């Protein structure tokens, strides 16, 4: 019964959070009500969220055909190289940011679905919290959330700092139209997040991270660090220096590197590391000597662990 | 209401049986155009986005329908014939992803709109080392050179008579002895009624968003549903 008492305390916290939130919408209230009901219901759960990933079905049939490679041969690119590749894709290869963000976010959703096949998860174990930062990583998170919804996961988004750029506004609208709730408030109570979400997608900072973490992301990353819920980080674990050893910070279970793995991800010690970069033209692969493994079948992600 | 099955990791859903045997009321041309408009205006999608997802799902479907044959050089070769509108744009995206999947696509794109979107897609194909034909070979040469044709000429927006050069192009494709995979609607078909025995008879059809009414008359080998981006509220309106 201990989690039920804990659930009761969480209900009180939820109620206070609800009263003080600024961006409440009817939809948010409806979904939060469902969340609270689930916390205090007598419905039995086969799995308790936040426990080891090994308790969840990994669906080995989805992992079949995943080509692994010797990590010693894969190139880990610097922040500067990542920036240069992006710029070349726009300037020389004619890609638009809408296209690339769409392909990256879709690939992230695919990676998540590979590790946590939705068909093997009861409906109550499909809840995902997607924490989105203010830049491109956050935009990828929005795309990822939309595709997760299409895959029949149940994402909720926390997007506290929204740039006024048309792309980010459009991606937000697309998620809203899919009835994906946007949280106006990320609970600081870790147990609430552990209980409510079976996975967390860290889409806060990517390879453009300058090293400076402004609020509210200091608190957000601190909260995520304390979670037992498995974390999937997009591109780099948020808060890690792109080109260096991480002194402290998130320890995600899954890392999805965009394009190519970054220098800091050599220190990734989680269970699954995917590269989502099938969209890269052969000339880019050759020029930067990326030496990525072959993508299996028509997959848009490949494992490098 | 369109019933969505969740195929994790899959972008192309194989439609079981014929469309008129399952609970799908295919949208009319007008409804299809209205859905498209809503996707852009209300749901906030951009043409770039939807075209990228549509083209990727077409490439995925083609790869499932025609698994890569690496034993012969011809087994990889695909001719992608692109029309002057969005269906052609879907074809350009499809060609690029087929190249990434290991196929050897060649594009024939005789009428190119001067819009940045399409010019960007052409650039992306060029930089992927995808060849563009100046002239469409005759049916016999086409059948010797390529293992299949992707028909990305006309989509659900097509109406009226087929004008040149596409009348001749469709005749050539019809006379070729290699299979055809059509994107959204077999080109030249009446979007509401279907095609006649003289029209294109594709082996594979990839319907985008929802199968159109005319696809009740599709009797080819495989019918895929691609482009999983319709919000549930919009799907309920179908």
Please give a handful of descriptors for the protein shown:
heterodimer; A: 305 residues; alpha/beta; 10 helices; 8 strands; globular; B: 238 residues; eight-stranded mixed β-sheet; 7 helices
What does this structure look like?
- The complex is a heterodimer of chains A (305) and B (238).
- Chain A has 305 residues and is of the alpha/beta class.
- In chain A, 39% of the residues lie in helices and 11% in strands.
- Chain A has helices spanning 2-20, 26-40, 60-63, 79-91, 97-115, 136-150, 166-177, 190-196, 217-225, 282-287, and strands at residues 127-132, 154-158, 182-183, 199-203, 231-234, 254-258, 272-276, 302-303.
- In chain A, β4 (199-203), α9 and β5 (231-234) form a beta-alpha-beta unit.
- In chain A, α1 (2-20) runs antiparallel to α2 (26-40) and α6 (136-150) runs parallel beside α7 (166-177).
- The radius of gyration of chain A is 19 Å and the shape is globular.
- By secondary structure, chain B is of the alpha/beta class.
- Chain B has helices at residues 29-41, 47-65, 86-100, 116-127, 139-145, 166-175, 232-236, and strands at 12-14, 77-82, 104-108, 131-133, 148-152, 180-183, 204-208, 222-226.
- Chain B has an eight-stranded mixed beta sheet with strand order 1-8-7-6-5-2-3-4.
- In chain B, α2 packs across α3 (86-100) and α3 packs parallel to α4.
- Residues 1-10 and 17-23 of chain B have low confidence and may be disordered.
- Chain A binds chain B through residues 62, 92-96, 98-99, 102-103, 106, 110, 113-114, 117-119, 150-152, 169-174, 177-179, 278-279, 281-283, 295, 297-299, and chain B through 6, 8-9, 42-46, 48-49, 52-53, 56, 59-60, 63-64, 100-101, 117, 119-124, 127-129, 228-229, 231-233.
- Chain B: Its main location: mitochondrion.
- Chain B: K(+) binds at residues 87, 151, 187.
- Chain B: Residues 32-238 form the YjeF N-terminal domain.
- Chain B: Keywords: Isomerase, Metal-binding, Mitochondrion, NAD, NADP, Nucleotide-binding, Potassium, Secreted, Signal.
